[in-house]
Structures are given as C-alpha cells and as structure tokens.
Write a structure and sequence with these properties.
There is one protein chain. With about 625 residues, this protein is an alpha+beta fold. About 50% of the residues lie in helices and about 15% in strands. Strands 7, 9, 10, 11, 12, 13, 14 and 15 form an eight-stranded mixed beta sheet that branches. It has a five-stranded antiparallel beta sheet with strand order 4-3-2-5-6. α6 crosses α15 and α9 packs antiparallel against α10.
Length: about 625
C-alpha cells in the first residue's frame, strides 16, 4: 500500500542574481520587458523609451517602468523620447553594454537583418530580429528554411533563450526541451552536479525523516530500508577497492615518508611490553607490504592507530615522571595525519561527524541494535559509513517503532545526507584510476533511476513529484554530457575533500590531424570552483612525460597560495615520472569554458563536424 506523502517542502533552487548597472532605478534587476524582477542577460532584446543620453550612456524606461542605464559605442542615431529596441551585448557587475536595433534600420548589419526577414516573408518582430542577429553572430545561414526552423523550435521549447537554440543548431545537437534546457544550463554556468547533489542530499533524507514522523512505522521501516539500501549498496561497492585494496595508489614519496615515520616511532616505543613487542615484530611485515603494495590501507591504518596510542601512553608517562619527553612531536603528528588521511579515504565516520553528533547517533542506534561493539565504534568514529548504514538497514524491520525513532532523528538525517554525498562524489585518490570514473557515472545513474522508481511507486503528493523531478534533472545532466562528448571530450568531476566539495570540469580537445602528428600530446582545460580559492582555470599541455600548466587565478591572494605550495605538486608529479612546469597568473580567465571549447570544435574551414566524428583521447589522470 503506497504511503501518502504531502509533508515535504522541497528546498528551492538558488535564486537568480540580479546585475546592477552604474545608474539605474531601484528596479534595475528587471531588464526583461514586462517581467519585473527577472535578471538581465547577455543576448536579450529589450525595448523602451530613451529618457537621457550622456556621453556613452543611454537611459531607457522599459514597459514595466524599470529604468536601465547602459553603455553604447554609437549613440548618433538616438534621441531623447525615442522608443526603440536594444540588444544586451554583455553584462558585468559594473556595466551593461547595449547594441541598437532601431526600428528605422540604417546601418549595414541591420539592413542585412531587414533583408533576411523580408525575403523570408517574416515580420520584423523583436524575436525575429534577435533570431537573425544570433544567426549572423554565429556565421550561420539566414535563409528562409533556417529562420523557420529556429522560429518553430523557439516556439515549441519553453524557458530557453533564442541564442541557446541557435547554438544547438550550429553544433548539430538535437533540439528538444530536455536537451535545450541542459544546454542553456551549461552555457550559463548553472549545470554543476555538485549543486544537484547538494539539493538531493538534503531533500532525500528530509523525505525519510518527515515520513518517519507522520506515517505508519512498519511502512516507514519497509520504505526506508529500500531507500537506504540504494545508497548503502553503492557505498559498499564503491569503497570495496579502497577498504580491501592495496597501497598501489600511493606514490613512492608517500610510501617512503610513511615507512620512515613508522620505523622511528616503533623504535621509540621499543619491545618492552607485549603491545610494544607486537608493534616491533609487525614493523617489517607492514613496511614491506607498503613497499610492495601487498597490504590494504585499512591494515596500515590499524597499525598506525596502535602506534599512536602507545606513543601517547609513553609521552604521558614521561611527563608524569617529571622528565622531559624525548619523543619528536613530529612523529606523532605525522602518524596522526597519515591515519586521518587513510580514515578519510576509507570513509570513517570520525572524518564526517563530530563527537557530539556521534554520541547522539549511538544513543538512537542502541535502541534499535543491541551491540556494544557497534555502539563503541560509532562513538569513537572508527566504523566506516557504508558499514554503519548497511548494519542499520539490516535491522530496521526488527523493530519498526525504534526504526522510526532513529529515522526521524537529526543524527540519522545527517548520516544519510553524508552518505549520499559520499556515494555521489569522488575523492582525489579515486580519480587516480580512470575505471572509478566510469563506474561512478554508471552507478550514480542507476541510483537515480532506482530512487525515482521507488518514490513514484510508493509515494504521492507534490513534494514527492518535486523530488522525482530533481532526480530526473540530475539524470538529464549526466545524459547531456554524453551529447557534448560528440563535440569534444568533457566530463564533470564532483570532488570531495576533507572539509568541502568542489565542482570541477575537465575539457580535452585533440584534432584528428594533430593526433596523427603528435600521438602523445594532449591539451586539457581543468575548470575548478573552490569554496575558499574561488574559480581556477588550469590549462595543461601534456606531451609524453612533460606537463606544462598555466593557472588562471581569481585574485592575487589565491595566486600567492599556489606559488607557495606549487612545489608540493611538482614533487608529487615527479614521483609519478613527470617533468612539471607551472605558470601562475593573477588575472582570472574570462569567458565561458564551454563556449571556448565549442569554438575549438569548429574545423579550420568554418564547418562543424557531425556528431561522433571528433576523436576521443585516453589521458593519464595522474597528470
């Protein structure tokens, strides 16, 4: 029996940001004629009465009484009191640049617009003028057939700009509502998978929490178990290689540094106690396993934690005896960092949930599962998130009342939120194996399909519909990447670090003739959005084992951070056999990366390759 759901208020997507001109009224964020409150956008056609002309600035009152001031190069044909149309050429935080689209067209470009519309037998409406203008801007045919095709498509597709539809025709992309919406999102920078993940990782746990507060406990336990299993199975599968794999993804430098500190620490502890003797006797096996990559990271981590505990005991004993500690504090600190590093990559609860929240979660879980070892591992954070989620899921039906209490609590909502983020993001270490990226997208699409199907079959209500719309949107985002790959190799990489997630995009383009001449040469643009560093555009040219990079930074502060730490990157790449050179620029790179690579996809003769004709290039992710 489906659970009736009318209780979730889905979080709205972030509101659009208005652009403010230098001299405008209080309604400056409303440039769309007749659409108060809508943001102004480049390529938009606006119409209004000219009320002031000063220098290179023109002030216009739009039909909704919005006053807008824009910059124009040529004002010779304008006069105060005139009502005419303008095209928004560009928009920045400080400046709106306009181009005239006069009703009495008298320049060469506008004569071409008028001629094209007249020959096609089409009226000179603002939309038709904009269509011709966009076709001219993109050097596309302006014959009757093309104009009618664009007009039909723009009429059939909602909430998509004319310039988006023109560009899709230019690059031979299928024009449908779903694809056009995604293309516009990509072209305007609203396509981040991290953004999709953030929304769903909040709303899916909220759905389960609210159901647990209002619906029948038995139904909630059954539905919740099936929903949780989608994520827990993904996490278990995803983390299998990390939890039970070897140390092969560690660089030679990382291995040697780790072995050095293990040798120093175990020597200090000595073999005077049973545990010390065990540490000393295991040292050779552990270090040999690290060197040969024949040991799992979890085994190494357990060994490090044992060392750390004994170092703390030894240090405390020396301090209590009034003697100066002889331990090098760097040894304990370094081992702790390695241990945290392995915990993070092994998905340990301690790396994602603070001690206070773990205590609350342990209390809620104990009402459902009577297992002291499990409760202890939750409190100290040693249990992996995937193992904890799987264990909870397998016990939900044993006590529906206790399960409902657990599911509606804030600690579990937080745990489930974290679990979704971990399932649908990639760590830097996971990026070192290209198979992980393929598996990532395959399993995420499967998760989205399963989640959508589960909600549609078991829940009703507007909130459930909104949630399935969100999963479908994210799925469309992933599918659209496949369409973009018919033009050039492109992929989003939602990366998870210890304290934040980051949106990243990887663009690769190599023309066929260049690939024949230089089979080991590839050009890459890595576009990154960080919480603190801001937006970075990194151009990478890899030829054989040489890597040349240019970092475009948003400001001098970020540039200085990179310059200070660039040696760490150089050392890491050197340990993987690469010769590395870097150039850091303090000015941000202008323009849309997608538009830049769409332009690169155009062949030298100006023709656009048909879908599927561009070459793919396998590149080394270590670089």
């Amino acid at each position: 029996m489906p659970i009736e759901n009318k209780i979730i208020s889905n979080t709205a997507t972030p509101s659009d940001r208005g652009i403010v001109s230098g001299r405008t009224s209080s309604s400056t964020s409303s440039p769309h004629t007749g659409t108060p409150g809508a943001p102004i956008e480049a390529g938009q056609i606006i119409k209004g009465e000219i009320t002031d002309i000063r220098g290179k600035e023109v002030t216009i009152v739009l039909s909704d009484n919005t006053t807008l001031t824009g910059h124009m190069q040529n004002l010779s044909n304008l006069y105060i009191g005139q009502t005419t149309s303008f095209r928004v050429a560009s928009v920045t935080q400080r400046l709106i640049t306009l181009e005239g689209l006069l009703d009495n067209i008298n320049n060469q470009e506008n004569l071409a617009v008028r001629k094209a519309l007249d020959e096609a037998g089409l009226p000179r409406t603002e939309r038709n003028i904009q269509i011709v203008q966009e076709l001219l801007n993109n050097r596309m045919p302006i014959n009757k057939a093309m104009l009618q095709q664009i007009i039909q498509q723009s009429s059939a597709i909602n909430n998509v700009s004319v310039d988006t539809i023109v560009l899709m025709n230019k690059y031979n992309l299928p024009v449908s509502q779903e694809l056009a919406t995604q293309f516009q999102n990509y072209n305007t920078g609203n396509h981040s998978l991290i953004g999709n993940i953030d929304i769903l990782s909040e709303n899916i746990p909220n759905l389960l929490t609210e159901l647990a507060s209002n619906a029948d406990p038995s139904q909630v336990a059954d539905f919740g178990g099936r929903l949780i299993s989608i994520i827990s199975e993904h996490l278990s599968s995803k983390n299998m290689s990390t939890l039970t794999g070897d140390m092969s993804t560690f660089s030679a430098g990382e291995k040697n540094e780790l072995i050095t500190y293990i040798n120093e620490a175990s020597s200090l502890i000595g073999s005077n106690t049973d545990e010390g003797n065990n540490i000393f006797s295991m040292r050779e096996t552990i270090t040999d396993g690290i060197l040969k990559s024949s040991i799992s990271p979890s085994e190494v981590n357990n060994y490090l934690q044992t060392i750390e505990k004994n170092l703390n005991i030894l240090s405390d004993a020396q301090t209590n005896n009034g003697t100066m500690p002889f331990l090098n504090p760097q040894i304990g600190d370094k081992l702790n960092l390695f241990s945290e590093y392995l915990d993070f990559n092994n998905n340990a609860l301690s790396q994602s949930m603070n001690e206070s929240m773990r205590q609350e979660l342990a209390s809620d879980v104990s009402a459902l599962i009577n297992n002291n070892e499990l409760i202890t591992s939750i409190k100290n954070g040693s249990i992996s998130i995937d193992k904890l989620l799987t264990t909870i899921n397998s016990n939900l039906l044993s006590s529906p009342e206790a399960a409902a209490k657990l599911l509606r609590g804030e600690p579990f909502r937080t745990l489930f939120n974290i679990s979704i983020r971990h399932a649908w993001t990639l760590t830097a270490r996971e990026l070192k194996k290209s198979d992980n990226i393929t598996d990532y997208y395959r399993t995420m699409v499967e998760d989205l399909m399963k989640t959508t199907e589960l909600i549609e079959k078991n829940l009703s209500g507007s909130a459930s519909l909104a949630l399935t719309n969100q999963t479908n949107t994210m799925n469309s985002n992933v599918n659209f990447m496949q369409d973009l790959n018919s033009l050039f190799q492109f992929i989003q990489l939602p990366i998870r670090f210890k304290d934040q997630t980051a949106h990243s995009e990887l663009y690769v383009y190599t023309k066929k003739d260049e690939l024949k001449r230089h089979p080991e040469k590839v050009s890459v643009l890595l576009h990154l959005d960080f919480e603190h560093l801001g937006t970075l555009d990194i151009h990478v040219l890899k030829e054989k084992n040489r890597v040349d990079t240019t970092f475009h930074c948003p400001d001098s502060s970020t540039a200085n951070i990179l310059k200070t730490n660039i040696q760490l990157l150089k050392d890491t790449l050197s340990s993987n056999g690469y010769i590395f050179n870097a150039n850091v620029k303090e000015t941000p790179k202008t323009g849309n990366p997608l538009q830049e690579f769409l332009n690169l996809a155009t062949e030298t003769d100006g023709q656009i390759p048909s879908a599927g004709t561009l070459n793919r290039y396998a590149f080394d992710l270590r670089a």
